[in-house]
Amino acid sequence: MLSTLTKDLASPWGLAALPDGDLLVSSRDQGTITRIDTETGRKTLLGSVPGVAPGGEGGLLGLAVPPTYASDHLVYAYFTTESDNRIARVLYDERKPAGQQLGAPDTILRGIPKGVIHNGGRIAFGPDGMLYAGTGETGNPGLAQDKKSLGGKILRMTPDGRPLHGNPYPDSVVYSYGHRNVQGLSWDADKRLWASEFGQHEWDELNLIQPGKNYGWPEVEGKGGRPEYVDPVAVWPVAEASPSGIAYVRGSIWMAGLRGERLWRIPLRGAGLAAEPQAFLKGEYGRLRTVLAAGGDRMWLMTSNTDTRGTPKPGDDRILLLQVK
């Protein structure tokens, strides 16, 4: 069952749920955060994030609400500036007038390489209460294999941006490397981290992430079968996926496809597949950017047709509520 929650969003990218169930949406190109009432679909502009410099695939990207939100009212954002990509937290004060409810950004991590392409951008809090981020190699493949660079990585940090004891490299937020452009992060029922990754010309990937492991880019695209690199659990031709957000719902990873214009269901069994991936909504809503678990057998699905690469229809972009059987 599929229904539309809200329409007419401009270049939406990040999507995060507040404790009461309402949603926060970032606009990549406008640099704003908007609250969506999940009962009525009503939109309320919270404000702009200062310092955002939109351009190419950069701008205001991922959002995350921490487990401590009820006490601290902080919202985390990943965004592109004139010089880099960075992660900051902002105070959300609901008592202030609409449009003026965001405090000044408190940057917790800076120096993530930026580019016209491959800025990564997804952030999420894990079951351990720590903050994870997917980054891109900015079109410079060598960054993915450079452990000193924050580009082409999955990062793990404390909520104030510090390297975590137990990370694979001392005094580093790098958690895994050899990635091209990670825009999907989600944990399954066993608290294992999964990530979606854009391929170049051949294979998009779904990876099961292990700390300190090398996922092969640019030496391998897709399954290389080489012991020094971790092979993906599933791959797709790039025209069928170009995956951004993922979510774990009812035993499967659900993966939003941009170029593929479809939603993929990847049933899991252990560390592998329970069945072949299935495609849904092919071409029905255009480019799909973000998918977010909504509790039980429901998920939110956000389109991405106003990002300069899609063909917007009247009402784009929109957030859909999908109930799976």
Structure description:
- It is a single chain.
- The chain has 325 residues and is mainly β.
- The protein has a single domain (2-323), classed as TolB, C-terminal domain (Neuraminidase), CATH 2.120.10.30.
- The chain is 1% helix and 41% strand.
- It has 1 helix and 25 strands.
- It has one helix at residues 69-72, and strands at residues 2-6, 12-17, 23-27, 32-36, 43-48, 60-64, 74-80, 85-91, 106-112, 123-125, 131-134, 153-157, 174-177, 182-187, 193-197, 203-208, 234-237, 243-249, 252-257, 263-269, 272-273, 278-280, 288-293, 298-303, 319-323.
- Strands 18, 19, 20, 21 and 22 form a 5-stranded antiparallel sheet that branches. A 4-stranded antiparallel sheet has the order 1-25-24-23, with no helix packed on it.
- Strand 15 and strand 16 (203-208) form a beta hairpin.
- It is globular and about 55 Å long.
- The protein starts with a strand and ends with a strand.
- The model has no long low-confidence stretch (mean pLDDT 97).
- InterPro entries: 6-blade_b-propeller_TolB-like (IPR011042), Glc/Sorbosone_DH (IPR012938), Quinoprot_gluc/sorb_DH_b-prop (IPR011041).
- It comes from Streptomyces sannanensis.
- Residues 9-308 form the Glucose/Sorbosone dehydrogenase domain.
- This is PQQ-dependent sugar dehydrogenase.
